[in-house]
Design goal:
By secondary structure, the chain is mainly beta. Helices cover about 5% and strands about 45% of the residues. It is globular and about 55 Å long. The protein starts with 5 loop residues before the first strand and ends in a 23-residue tail after the last strand. The relative contact order is 0.19.
Length: about 300
């Protein structure tokens, strides 16, 4: 199941912890590929997905207080999924705890099982005030701290400037020499490309290879696999790889129907240490797995495997 939650918050308030926090959160044990952490919602122990592709916290209505029904706010949250854009009610959550940090009266979007059946609540990285959000996937941890990204010795890395659009993180990529943008989404299990990018990059369709992709809003789409001759991000490169090409309203809702764009999910990201420097708007990708062969794309390219193929 691919989880795409690109949420656009319609109020301007951002939740912040104190600026001095410096801590590590361990991932919960789960079958999902992604940063799922242990949390408490109104005193109930549960799990939540820490999602770079979300800008609003989303919780299930089962965690709302039964004896005192919540008062829904006039503000609506717009959630983007494979099925397009939908609006969700919002309310004030009484209590949220992540590790040793707690918040009260948190404004959140409210989900229900028949509307948006997902396994976990969703937390945006904007919940934390620290300038660095450091995903160390190989150790199932995320580090929260200020300053500069921690150095990882003897590992290839690439520092990439990113831009924010609708409070989401986009990095430049090149496919078959064609420039485009990739949405960094730790909430997506599978990466995919929009048709405009596949067309401009002159990707080769695999006639008999398709993949059924289910969104977090229960929308199901058929993605056709295409072979791409070159894929480049920063100093990393991949030669000849297959990536799903998906026609979905998600790209239209984001405003990228005719612009080369892709969603970069956990099938690619989990092979790296992903350090998001929100103060400087940079992402550092550190390849910590040394067993892969050297890329043939360019002499200075770091070692990388064909991550997209299954």
């Amino acid at each position: 199941m691919i989880l795409i939650v690109c949420a656009i918050l319609l109020w301007s308030t951002t939740l912040f912890a104190n600026a001095s926090e410096h801590r590590t959160l361990s991932f919960a044990e789960t079958t999902r590929i992604g940063p799922v952490i242990n949390v408490e919602v109104n005193g109930i122990a549960t799990t939540a997905l820490l999602d770079t592709g979300a800008t609003v916290a989303l919780i299930d209505d089962d965690y709302l207080t039964e004896h005192e029904p919540p008062e829904f706010l006039d503000v609506q949250a717009r959630i983007l999924g494979l099925g397009g854009l939908r609006e969700y009610p919002t309310t004030t959550l009484q209590h949220l705890t992540v590790g040793e940090r707690s918040w009260q009266d948190v404004r959140v979007a409210v989900n229900s099982s028949h509307r948006f059946p997902v396994d976990h609540s969703i937390l945006p990285i904007s919940l934390f005030q620290t300038s660095i959000v450091d995903f160390e996937f190989s150790k199932s941890q995320v580090h929260l701290y200020d300053g500069r990204p921690r150095r990882v010795r003897n590992a290839p890395k690439s520092v990439i400037r990113y831009k924010e659009d609708q409070r989401l993180i986009f990095v430049p990529v090149k496919i078959n020499g064609v420039r485009g943008l990739a949405l960094i989404d730790t909430g997506a299990e599978r990466s995919f490309v929009n048709p405009a990018y596949a067309r401009r990059a002159k990707a080769v369709p695999e006639e008999y290879e398709q993949e059924r992709m289910q969104g977090s809003d229960l929308s199901t789409k058929t993605a056709h696999l295409y072979t791409f001759r070159k894929f480049e991000i920063g100093e990393f490169g991949i030669a000849r790889t297959k990536i799903p090409v998906l026609r979905t309203d998600l790209f239209e809702a984001l405003g990228y129907t005719d612009t080369p764009m892709m969603v970069m999910g956990m099938d690619f990201l989990h092979h790296f240490r992903l350090q998001v420097d929100r103060k400087r708007k940079r992402i550092t990708m550190v390849q910590v797995q040394e067993r892969y062969p050297r890329s043939r794309l360019r002499p200075q390219a770091a070692r990388i495997s064909d991550y997209f193929d299954r």
